[in-house]
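Table S2 (continued). Query chain:
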Amino acid sequence: MALFHSTTKIISRSDAGNAVAAAAYRSGSRMTCERTGQVFNYARKKEVTYRAILAPKRSPDWVFDRSKLANRIEATETRVNSQLWREVEVALPRELTPEQH
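Corresponding output:
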């Protein structure tokens, strides 16, 4: 029997979080944090099969650029206990085909 699971997490600065690092890891890409100068390279990560940024229809174009969005979050949220973003993770059953996903 196939099982579905979903979790919601908060990425926060107090847990040593960095929005650019989190975005690079979750999307399996390479990004540079403008605030710290660090480069996060997860381009070899093969487990990521789908990436999406969900935003309202009239959002500015930069919202859909993952690197620009993450760097704006880093620049805006400056407090030590800032909540950088909320992540919704959905794991679909392995028994389903890619078309069914």
